[in-house]
Amino acid sequence: MNVATIAAQKNFFVSQKFVDYAALGPCDADGPLFSIPGLTPKPECAKRGGGGSAEQEEMIRSFEKKHAQQSLLWRSVFVSLLFSYMAFQIFSIYNQALSPWELRYHAYFMYEVDSWVVISADLLAVMACLMAIKGLLDNSKYHRQWILGSCCPGLLLMIFWLYHMLRLPKFRWEIIWLPFGSLCGSGMSMYVDHLLGESSEEIRKLRGYMYAYKAS
Fold this sequence. Notes:
By secondary structure, the chain is an all-alpha fold. The chain folds into two domains: 3-69 and 197-215, no CATH class; 76-194. Helix content is 73%, strand content 0%. The chain contains eight helices and no strands. The protein has helices spanning 3-15, 21-24, 43-46, 53-98, 104-107, 115-137, 143-167, 177-215. The protein is elongated, with a radius of gyration of 24 Å. The chain crosses the membrane at residues 72-95, 115-133, 145-163, 175-196.
C-alpha cells in the first residue's frame, strides 16, 4: 500500500478541506496504487484529496480492494518460495535416508555428525517453512506468532550448521545457504507481513478519519 497516498488522505480529513474530486482525474488508471511500501509513490496520487462523502467512501473501498489483491499476491509469492525450499529439504531428507552422504552438501559433514542428525536438521528446516507458511496464510490475529515462531528453528539451524562448517578443514562458501536458508525465509515472511499489516492499519485509520469528519 502506498503510505504517502494514505497520509495525504488523512491530512485532508484532519484539516477538513475540500478539493474538487472530479478535477483530480482517475488515479488508478496507469497502474496499481497498492504495492510493497518503499516504492516511489505516484505524484498525482499523493496529492489527491477527497470530494463528497460518496466519493470518499468509494475511494476508501477502492483502497481496501486493492490492498486485499496486493496482499494475496505478495503472500502467494512468498508462500511459493517457502514451499519450494521445503520441497527441496524433503528431497534432501529422502536422499539422506536412502543413500547416506550421497548429496555433496551433506557429504562434507560425513565425519562430523551422524546421518540421523543431518536428517533431523533438515526436518527442522521443513518445520520452519511450515510455520512461516501457516503465518502468511492464516487470517487470525495470531498469524504473526507463527512467523515469529519459525525464527526459532531457523536460529537453531544457523548455529548448528555454522558450528560444523567452521570445524571443516576448509570453509565451504557454496553451502552457506544451509545455515541461513530457513532463517532468511522467516525474515522475509516477517518483513512482508509487517509491511502489508502497516498498509492495512493506515487504511483503517483513514476510514476512521472519514467517519469522524462526517460526525463533526
